[in-house]
Amino acid sequence: MSYLNNGKHLISEPRVSEDASDTVSKSDRSNSTNTSQGVRVPRRQSTASIRPVSVASSIFSVIPFSCQDRYSKIVSAIELRDVQALRELAISDGGLLNTNLRRKAWPLLLNVDSFYMYKHHDTPHRDEHQVDIDLTRTNLPRMAGCVLSSELRKRVQKQLGNVVKTILRAHPWLSYYQGFHELAMVFLIILNGGNDSLRATESAALFFVRDAMGDNLETIRTQLSLIYTLLENEDPELHTLLDQLAIPPFFAISWVLSWFAHDLVDLNDMARLYDFFMSSSPLAPIYVAASLVSHNRSKILGSEPEFAVVHALLVGLPQGNNDWAEILARSSEWMEEYPLARLQELGNVKLNKK
Amino acid sequence: MNKNIEATFKLLFIGDSGVGKSSILLRFTDNCFLPPEDTGATIGVDFKVKVQRIQDKKYKVTIWDTAGQERFRTLTSSYYRGAQGVMLVYDVTDRSTFTELEKWFDELNTFCADPNIVKMVVGNKIDMAAERQVSKEEGDTYAKNHGALYYECSAKTSLDVDQAIKALVSEIIQRPTLWKKSAPSSSGSSNLFSNSNGNTRVGSNGGGGADGEPFSNCAC
């Protein structure tokens, strides 16, 4: 536990209502009284040496007056465990507002059982070598007012490795892809390490990005083509340009695979998009990608019509000055107007969806 | 200045994950090196451009840097088209990345039909001499057997990075059939990777500097 305490004070933490150490002790208690589920194991057997990270503290922001109403609604939805209301709040303008609320809301949205503990899996996963290569070069997001010491950075990376490997070992049929570690990083930081981070990432792996964790990325390739289908219908001028330049939609692959965590620099922006993605269909990143491209249409249409130039411009779009509220609002509209079945029909593609 | 661009070349960096493809590229275009924790794995394909002066002529060099993980290969393969030069990078301190070159050559031969394309095998990380697992002689012999040029370099210390890329570009210049044609034969979209002279404004994310000068948008 001394390790945990060290970690807590590297960056001052205002108030964490329920950190992972609480979760763990509750889990231990519940484990001793309730063994009927069988999946609960004492903490010492867990692979997850995943402890609070405490680097997200800077985004415990003061709630502006204009958001007070939203704030109360979120608090009330959390208390009532009203997932449908939370989902609507997570999607609509402003999202879940801050880390404190997200820490309580995300596990509900992802249907995470905070008390479930992992069994230890000794057999290493075939992709762990690749995970190790990527971990050392994980770029941590920028958090206002925070400077990460290299010691803390290393600690986060180590915990990230534990999260990713624990999930891979528990589900050996999943394959790791580069970018999954960055997807996991945001859960780790926002949910403050601990069991919730692990379970939330697992939930995302199983129910949101599983298409990327199969034998290959062919399904993702097909999904990416739907970005152009959306543009063709909603922004024909832009679509014509991209089509003429024959730019494949792979510029968006990291957006989709990492929920933009690979591309954004600010943790607040990442968390806002995560609110949206975990409350929507797994294909939501495709709609957001199309919406982001269309949002920057004048920049793209005004650039030199050359493959390399436009490709580079597209790749860098998430880092530009974007009005994410507008981009997400447009994405929501498109998701209503072009539900997946219709989109596939328009794009003349077939995704193997259950 | 741009009117003086002799030709535009397309280079491609391939090789296993973590061998330093992106670091070589960053050293070449921005003359800097980032510690591992400040870099990130390349997901998909990155792109940078730099104007390179060779024998008083200017060439625009566009470099496409690809993800190393195997599952991305089918996606990155669509960027092979129109390349005049390919750099196959391995890590001299990790033999497995050297033996994997065989697969990368297969990949290259599958997706790059032009037999004239200039290939170069590059062993990176020679600054870590104590950990070397592949000798220079072995690398050189391997490259020769595959009809490729050979260089060793260190993106970290910058040793021979520029020289390697210059040698690759010079070899392309020596093979005018690669680039002195009006349109590539195979694809319908003839203007994509051809030698578009003039109008060479670089996109905001392109990161290249003019006249071979290091570009100064680097944080280090």
From TrEMBL, chain A:
GO terms in the biological process aspect are:
endoplasmic reticulum to Golgi vesicle-mediated transport
| Keyword Membrane among UniProt keywords | no
Gene3D superfamilies reported for this sequence = 1.10.8.1310, Ypt/Rab-GAP domain of gyp1p, domain 3
Outline the extent of the Rab-GAP TBC domain.
96-281
Please list which residues make up the signal peptide.
none
Q: Which SMART domains match?
A: TBC
- Which segments show compositional bias classed as Polar residues? 30-47
Q: Which InterPro entries match?
A: Rab-GAP-TBC_dom (IPR000195), Rab-GAP_TBC_sf (IPR035969), TBC20/Gyp8-like (IPR045913)
Q: Where is this region: Disordered?
A: 1-47
Has keyword Calcium?
no
Keywords of this entry:
GTPase activation
Any one GO CC term of the record: endoplasmic reticulum membrane
- GO molecular function annotations of the record: GTPase activator activity
Q: What is this protein called?
A: GTPase-activating protein gyp8
Q: Which organism is it from?
A: Mycoemilia scoparia
Name of the encoding gene: GYP8
UniProtKB/TrEMBL annotation, chain B:
Q: Tell whether Membrane is among the UniProt keywords.
A: yes
**The keyword Nucleotide-binding is assigned to this record:** yes
Gene Ontology terms, cellular component aspect?
A: endomembrane system
The terms under GO molecular function for this entry are: GTP binding; GTPase activity
Signal sequence residues: none
The record's listing under Pfam families reads: Ras (PF00071)
Q: Where is this region: Disordered?
A: 180-211
Q: Which domain of life is it from?
A: Eukaryota
Subcellular localization is given as: Endomembrane system
SUPFAM superfamilies the UniProt entry points to: P-loop containing nucleoside triphosphate hydrolases (SSF52540)
**Keywords recorded for this protein, A-Z:** GTP-binding, Membrane, Nucleotide-binding
Q: Which InterPro entries match?
A: P-loop_NTPase (IPR027417), Rab (IPR050227), Small_GTP-bd (IPR005225), Small_GTPase (IPR001806)
Q: Low complexity: which segments have biased composition?
A: 185-203
Q: Which residues cross the membrane?
A: none
**Name this protein carries in UniProt:** Ras-related protein Rab-18
What organism is the protein native to? Mycoemilia scoparia
Query: Which lineage is the organism of this entry classified under, starting from the top rank?
Result: Eukaryota, Fungi, Fungi incertae sedis, Zoopagomycota, Kickxellomycotina
